[in-house]
UniProtKB/TrEMBL annotation:
Disordered: annotated segments: 186-206
PANTHER family for the chain: HTH-TYPE TRANSCRIPTIONAL REGULATOR LMRA, TRANSCRIPTIONAL REGULATORY PROTEIN
Keyword annotations of the record: DNA-binding, Transcription, Transcription regulation
Organism per entry: Terrabacter lapilli
Residues annotated to bind DNA: 29-48
Pfam families reported for this sequence: TetR_N
Domain of life of the source: Bacteria
InterPro entries: Homeodomain-like_sf, HTH_TetR, Tet_transcr_reg_TetR-rel_C_sf
DNA-binding found in the keyword field: yes
Keyword set includes Transcription: yes
Lineage of the species this protein comes from: Bacteria, Bacillati, Actinomycetota, Actinomycetes, Micrococcales
Name of this chain's protein: TetR/AcrR family transcriptional regulator
Domain HTH tetR-type: 6-66
Length: 206
């Protein structure tokens, strides 16, 4: 059976994913990237308008990986509170990897201009994550979903940064525990179909 050789585009994206995440999108030059991917310079400009477009594709790929990892941890769960905590479980899995290097979007954005592709990718992922938290807290019947989503996102951001600084996944577990406490103690507008483990049910409003 013949094994299909990855296309030049696939090899460029694979090399970009590894090098950009490990070393930084601006620290890695075009020649290094081409050498790692084993392609000619013409292949880069045939598949991408330039390095900026390749950086954008790399960040899109990282966003897809994050979403897929979260979805895998949420699979089979019906309780929206458990789905929220599964987002932290997915982050803990990533932080436990020996190649973990923090948030790819924040890392790339730190090196970029305010209106660049890196900044757009960071905003898009953060908006998506905030909407996940807001939607799930709404499904769980919490009263102030926007405030609660803000609190959860701050916890998530702190877990990303601290686990990167400490090079271990334990800070994510701490953040997950705090998130569970917040969810248990927060007011619910309705008597929801699901509730955090150990939480007392709130009576329905008259």
């Amino acid at each position: 059976m013949t094994t299909r050789r990855p296309s030049a585009r696939e090899r460029l994206l694979t090399a970009a994913d590894r090098l950009f995440y490990a070393e930084g999108v601006h620290a890695v030059g075009i020649d290094r990237l081409l050498d790692e991917a084993g392609v000619a310079k013409g292949s880069l400009f045939y598949n991408f308008a330039g390095k900026e477009e390749l950086v954008g594709a790399y960040l899109e790929g990282r966003a897809a990986q994050r979403r897929e990892r979260i979805a895998a941890h949420q699979e089979g769960l019906s309780d929206p509170v458990e789905k929220i905590l599964a987002i932290f479980e997915a982050l803990a899995e990533a932080a436990a990897s020996p190649t973990y290097n923090g948030c790819p979007f924040a890392n790339a954005n730190a090196e970029a201009t305010a209106d660049g592709v890196e900044a757009r990718a960071l905003r898009q992922f953060r908006d998506w994550l905030h909407e996940q938290f807001r939607t799930l807290t709404q499904e769980a019947g919490y009263a102030d979903t926007h405030v609660l989503a803000d609190q959860l996102q701050v916890l998530y951001d702190g877990a990303v940064s601290t686990s990167h600084l400490d090079q271990r996944a334990e800070p994510v577990r701490v953040a997950e525990g705090i998130a569970a406490q917040i969810l248990t103690s927060s007011t619910r507008r309705l008597d929801p179909p699901f509730e955090p483990q150990g939480a007392a049910r709130e009576p329905m409003d008259a």
